[in-house]
Amino acid sequence: MWLLVGTVVVAGAGVVMNSPDLQQRVRYEFESWVLGLQARFGIVPGRTPSANNVELIKPPMALHPGSAPVGVGSAPVPVDLGRPRQEPVPLSGTPPLTTIEAHAARGTVGEAIALDLNLHGGLDADSERVIIGGLPMDASLSSGARDELGRWQLDASALAGLTLHASRPGQFTLFVRTQPLRPLRFPRATAETPVEVTVLAPATASDTPPAPPPVPSIDELLERGRKALELGDGGAARLFFEAAAERDNATAMLLLARSYDPSRGTEQIGVSADVIQAVQWYQRAAAAGLAEAGAALDSLRQWLQQQPNPDEAQRKALEALTPAKS
């Protein structure tokens, strides 16, 4: 059992010794624990406690001169050592505690990532330093420098406008705490807070949406439509002609109307005729000032009049082409 525990402890110590980040975190937690003990027991750093400023810690079975041993459940009785008892010094001169206001930071590799850190209360900014742990070794801050333990140190007055620069994407937690620049008469707990940082990879060309294809000119649309007709692809030709016709091109309207005209034999280009569509596009081309469209309407009307058994669409088209009698 103890051999297993010892093996685990040695393995854990090896992991800590091989990881600068873990060493930094352990050092950070140990310093915070020591400072908390100093504040709890009233020990001023840099001064050895003496018998006059440290209250004796009594064992539970202490003896009172001239009395029997104190039993369990009775209040412990202090031992009279023959010297006056030193009362604890009140901590009225202790400066107010500093608090750190922080927010999560987010940015991109290669850019300055703002760290929104603010100190409130406590000492003035010129009397405190800020220690930041957890900063990756390939990252840096815009002010201060890294110490021998790998932590980042800077004056509290330099927090305004502090930015972080990272060379690779990732997520990590910064541990920010304060430390007085000069020894204090009375110790106090240091302010500390974690800050979550997210560093994103820079946008690449693959992340950028492709540029839309250039819009072909009307002449290009007409040329592609004519080539489609030569190949017998009336469906593709209609798409090209309609795209140009929607841009108010009269020639495209005329060509589109011809592709629907039943009197011109649309079967040879692989599409079905639509006499209503033919009349509408011929009329739009004529309204745009194209004389050929008017002649095409006359020719289509004559063809419709010659049909022995016109269908419903043909009768409607003929009515649209026949001038009303006054």
TrEMBL record:
Superkingdom, taxonomy of origin: Bacteria
Lineage: Bacteria, Pseudomonadati, Pseudomonadota, Gammaproteobacteria, Candidatus Competibacteraceae
InterPro entries associated with the record: TPR-like_helical_dom_sf
Species, as recorded: Plasticicumulans acidivorans
Protein name according to UniProt: Sel1 repeat-containing protein
